[in-house]
Amino acid sequence: MRSPIPDYLTETLGDIASDTSGAPADYIPELATADPERLGAAFAMVDGAVYGAGDVNIEFTIQSISKPFAYALALADRGFDPVLAKVGVEPSGEAFNEISLEGGSGRPLNPMINAGAITTHSLAGPVGLDAAERLQRVVDGLSAFAGRRLTVDESVCASEMEHAHRNLAIAHMLRSYGVLTEDPATVVEGYTRQCSLLVTTLDLAVMAATLANHGVNPLSGERVVPEPVVRQVLSVMSTCGMYDAAGDWATQVGIPAKSGVAGGLIGALPGQLGIATFSPRLDAHGNSVRGVGLFGRFSSDMGLHVMEVPAAGRAVVRSNHVAGAGPDAVRVIELQGGIRFAGAERVVREVTDTAPTENRVALDLTMVYSIDDVGRRMLLEIVRRLTLDGHQVALIDPEGILPVPEVSPESR
Ligand code: DON
Question: Of these residues, 225, 229, 230, 261, which one is catalytic?
Fold first, then answer.
């Protein structure tokens, strides 16, 4: 059978292609030369399957899509507190290049606007790196997200540097508040090189899938950043990633996202997939017109809104039956799927409602593919309490997702 997914992508690109509104960015002259008809879309699943349609192998500069990834590197390299002390997490409701900082502290409001991203660039890598070493850390880190070595488009970079007055003004303000502690022009140059890294739509889908996959690149298997960092980055993407269009985006599309002025757009849906689109014509917010349209379609056609989540607990108990008879009878409770709090609560209720009369009870986890920490602790508590009630409890756990509990006599 031929997979329907590439066909769906091709069909959706065809539906959106007639929208020729907007225009390529021209404040960086080199970007104005982009072919406005380019159009591509890709899905990268968290298990590494990748689908694409249209111009998915054309390179363009990553621009602001680099911001969440550089933020992830800063958080991973420096820790949360030093980064949060310098860059906030509040939506600004303003344009990406607004010259505005938090009153008093001079802290940029968030890492997705230029003020925050310029600061974040300065925080990548361990303390003490020089500008070249820090840029190398950013290039290496973004390459690890993509799973291939990325390079800078020197002509786009030079073109942006010739017109970087606004970013230089922002950086000088940051320096005056002590948020930046070094030469503003050097930091802006590093940030501009970061924005000038060349990527394809397929690269961006894999980078987004690395976020969706809790920080592990699904193709290379490399852990690029720790899980708590990914949670922070996705949260900020969902509130600030689309600048002054963030509220419309959150309600209508509902996928943590980030756009770039070269026409790229990414979305990362935790546990499912990374999505990327490419089309250079931009709307008034600096977001790709056809990219926004494609994400609207993907979200509604595929039910991808992050707030639309299936009931987590309902199907966790696969069966509850007695095997054997007489004194050998065993109460078997078969579980399945992924278990989090609501699923574990459902298992607690199953066991308490059943009130097993059999001496032997088995919890069968053969069909369970994941369990988070709270789910694990709650299942172990069920085992402990059943044991204390005098049952012999067996865990059927061939994949070893639960550690074997120890019930010490003192805990009785
Ligand atoms: O700072 C700039 O102006 C660019 N290098 C990046 C801006 C950008 O991509 C904004 N996003 N839509």
Answer: 261
